[in-house]
Write a structure and sequence with these properties.
This protein has helices at residues 6-21, 26-39, 45-48, 63-75. It is mainly alpha-helical and 84 residues long. Helix 1 runs antiparallel to helix 2 and helix 2 runs parallel beside helix 4 (63-75). It is globular. 30% of the residues are buried.
Length: 84
């Protein structure tokens, strides 16, 4: 993700999280969650926190792990960008 600016990465992560929150296609949801993970430190914790609305118990196998990893990274401050 070296081609993304901090601002672009934060916007993209927020859009992906918003899309994931209401996604019904498991393959699309996996792609969205994987993209957020790939954004890593560019993801703004407040933006990805909306993933808490997902019931990880009802997600297809493995996708709940993606959500938990994203939220854990956000809580640990890894989504605060290079200036944090």
């Amino acid at each position: 993700m070296s081609g993304c600016s901090l601002a672009d990465g934060r916007v993209l992560a927020g859009l992906l999280a918003a899309a994931a929150e209401c996604e019904t296609d498991p393959a699309a949801l996996e792609a969205q969650l994987n993209a957020i993970l790939q954004l890593g430190s560019l993801a703004e914790p407040d933006m990805v926190a909306r993933l808490r609305a997902l019931d990880v118990e009802k997600l297809p196998p493995g996708l709940g792990d993606y959500v938990e990893d994203i939220l854990e990274d956000a809580e640990e401050g890894r989504g605060r960008g290079p200036s944090a």
